[in-house]
């Protein structure tokens, strides 16, 4: 037998056999006219070298074998893979009974794109048909060479939609690229929260009927658009995706024109002794922030109009300046009440056609509560009451002057003077005892300007706030004010017309006297 050692004794034995030979092969032969014979081949025996017979050729697996991906979980909605992304499969010809998910060793999947920290892996679910191939035909080196649809798992691209390229996951997350000429479109969709989609190009519904064109970004949940360096939204023309991304010449032309108009009006207002517009802030906004989005700003532009609508409330807010320009008319309509609050000055200037203020019903009240009021006209001033009286009341004095003739009324009497004639025309003229009509004057409220304001936060060494704790605030002008901190440890907001030093102390009996706090 191959592998056995033979030694031959005797003086007539060949020398090589006396040292021993190792049989490497045996050939047997026999015939009816011959005896049974064994012929062997051998090599000299040596303890220094081991004999290794030639390897038996291993089987070669040609082509691929059908199999199905398995999982340890019945009706698993997710892929059953290991830490290396490998699968277990059950070959179709294997009729043995196996524990689910253990029908094979872990098997790699061949993919069109793979690397160190990158690649393309679309996980396979249990029951998916795959084709098993073998590296160099080695049955011990199987791998998943491809994935197939079958009668139970039909293809999602068929003759019904053969113009579409579709990537769809088991949860119906979808990327669809339709190549029908003249109706090209792209759809990216997810089912979370109802439906969220990005649609580009020729937009269609589930029945392939057109419902729009261009692009649509929609969701049944919340939406947010965020850009750290700025956002430019424009309806200005830029055909065939040519030009720079931040090409904003049409928008800037409109803004520059509005700035020029505002500058002209502001100059005329200043000439007429009205307060001018704050042009420096507008110029800084356009040049330092909006133009080319050099700072984090939003520019919204449309050549034919912009409309903003709200079913309930609409708020415009600016921490600094709010600027509005109109090259033609500006109309504001309010069905109920309108409030305009100004912290310092209100300046209204009209260049040509005048100002009209009408109240069809209700009174008109104009007050200068803590300063003077001036009514000045180059021509006539007409004051008329069509159905009642006109009252002019002053606490101290009234002086009427026309062309140098005057009447002065005060608590000491009535003085009338004229450089010309003094005529009195009356149907009856009489004298009566002296009388006095005390004027009824309303008291005006005084509102602190609050130009200087601050509030304080009190916390302990661990950062916990002193909530609902009494305090006393001492101002440098000698006044004091007591209060209670809120649930977060804050005092009230202190407002003063002038700069002052404020000392705030807590009055809690359970703690030492605390002075100061964190100023905000």
Q: What do these coordinates show?
A:
This is VGR-related protein. It holds the Pfam family Phage_base_V. The longest helix is centred in the middle third of the chain and has 23 residues. Helix content is 8%, strand content 26%. Among the domains are: 40 residues, no CATH class; 97 residues, OB fold (Dihydrolipoamide Acetyltransferase, E2P); 56 residues, no CATH class; 68 residues. Helix 2 packs antiparallel against helix 3. 6% of the residues are buried. It has a 5-stranded mixed β-sheet, with no helix packed on it. It has a 5-stranded antiparallel β-sheet with strand order 9-10-11-12-13, with no helix packed on it. A 3-stranded antiparallel β-sheet has the order 1-2-3. The protein contains 3 helices and 25 strands. By secondary structure, the chain is mainly beta. The N and C termini lie far apart (101 Å).
């Amino acid at each position: 037998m191959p592998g056995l050692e033979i030694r031959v004794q005797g003086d007539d034995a060949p020398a090589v056999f006396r040292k021993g030979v190792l049989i490497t092969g045996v050939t047997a032969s026999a015939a009816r006219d011959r005896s049974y014979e064994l012929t062997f081949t051998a090599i000299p025996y040596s303890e220094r070298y081991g004999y290794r017979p030639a390897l038996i050729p291993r089987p070669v697996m040609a082509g691929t074998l059908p199999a199905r991906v398995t999982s340890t979980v019945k009706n698993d909605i997710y892929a059953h893979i290991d830490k290396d992304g490998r699968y277990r499969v059950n070959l179709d010809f294997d009729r043995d009974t196996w524990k689910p998910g253990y029908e094979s060793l872990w098997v790699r999947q061949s993919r069109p794109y793979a690397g160190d920290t990158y690649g393309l892996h679309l996980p396979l679910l249990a029951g998916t048909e795959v084709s098993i191939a073998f590296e160099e035909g080695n049955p011990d080196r199987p791998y998943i060479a491809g994935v197939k649809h079958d009668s139970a798992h039909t293809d999602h691209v068929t003759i019904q939609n053969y113009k579409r390229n579709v990537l769809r996951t088991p949860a119906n997350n979808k990327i669809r690229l339709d190549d029908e000429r003249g109706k090209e479109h792209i759809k990216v969709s997810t089912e979370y929260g109802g439906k969220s989609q990005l649609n580009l190009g020729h937009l269609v519904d589930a029945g392939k009927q057109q419902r729009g064109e261009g692009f649509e970004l929609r969701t049944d949940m919340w939406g947010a658009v965020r850009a750290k360096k700025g956002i430019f939204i424009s309806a200005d023309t830029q055909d065939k995706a040519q030009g720079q991304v931040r090409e904003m010449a049409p928008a800037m032309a409109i803004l520059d024109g509005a700035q020029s108009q505002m500058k002209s009006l502001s100059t005329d207002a200043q000439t007429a002794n009205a307060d001018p517009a704050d042009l420096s802030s507008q110029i800084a906004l356009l040049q330092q922030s909006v133009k080319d989005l050099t700072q984090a700003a939003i520019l919204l532009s449309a050549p034919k109009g912009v409309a903003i609508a709200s079913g309930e409330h609409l708020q415009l807010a600016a921490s600094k300046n709010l600027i509005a320009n109109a090259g033609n008319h500006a109309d504001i309509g309010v069905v109920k009440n309108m409030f305009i609050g100004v912290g310092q000055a209100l300046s209204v200037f009209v260049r040509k056609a005048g100002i009209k203020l009408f109240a069809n019903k209700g009174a008109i009240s104009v007050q200068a509560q803590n300063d003077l009021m001036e009514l000045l006209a180059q021509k006539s001033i007409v004051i008329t009451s069509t159905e009642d009286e006109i009252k002019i009341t002053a606490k101290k004095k009234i002086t009427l002057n026309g062309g140098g003739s005057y009447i002065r009324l005060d608590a000491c009497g009535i003085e009338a003077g004229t450089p010309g004639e003094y005529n009195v025309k009356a149907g009856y003229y009489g004298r009566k005892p002296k009388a006095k009509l005390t004027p009824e004057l309303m008291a005006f409220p005084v509102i602190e300007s609050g130009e200087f304001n601050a509030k304080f936060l009190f916390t302990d060494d661990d950062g916990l706030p002193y909530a609902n704790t009494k305090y006393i605030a001492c101002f440098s002008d000698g006044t004091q004010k007591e209060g209670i901190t809120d649930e977060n440890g804050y005092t009230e907001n202190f407002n003063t017309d002038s700069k002052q030093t404020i000392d705030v102390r807590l009055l809690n009996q359970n703690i030492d006297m605390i002075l100061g706090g964190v100023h905000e």
